[in-house]
Amino acid sequence: MASRELIVLIVRNDALRSALIARLSLQGESLMTLDVDPQDPVLDRIARAPKILVLDSESLGDQLPSLLDGGQWVRIIILADRARENGPNRVSTLDCRTEHTAVGRMRARGSWPV
Residue 91 and residue 75: Cα distance in Å, rounded? Predict the structure, then answer.
């Protein structure tokens, strides 16, 4: 079942981005993929809340605290080289090598890792 949230993908790895687009599109999700800074104000003009951010660790850099403070994201999913202990209640970190399909599975179940 598709969600009412827009999923914004900011993923530099072409293969990973394509896999996520395919899986989430087949599930009927509303999504967009961009190559911008996740804090770019253009995102609020393009898509109003609620939004879920899915990004790779390269795109994230050290911006997590400011992304959480901004309040524009209902959930932030970080795809990293290895899964880590989850951060604040809106943040999950998944291993992009083994868990890239987890984003689609979570949406299919209507749940996100907490």
Answer: 6
Helix (H) or strand (E) holding 106: helix 102-109
Q: How many CB atoms lie within 10 A of CB 107?
A: 22
10, two tokens: 């900011």
Q: Which amino acid, residue 88? A: P
Query: Which residue is associated with the tokens 């967009």?
Result: 32
Which residue is it, tokens 């989850």?
Answer: 86
pTM: 0.79
Q: Tens place of pLDDT for every residue, the chain, 114 residues?
A: 556 788 999 998 888 888 889 888 888 888 999 888 888 888 888 877 788 999 988 888 888 888 888 778 888 888 887 666 555 678 888 887 765 556 655 555 455 443
CA distances from 52 to 29, 91, 99, 104 (A): 11, 10, 17, 13
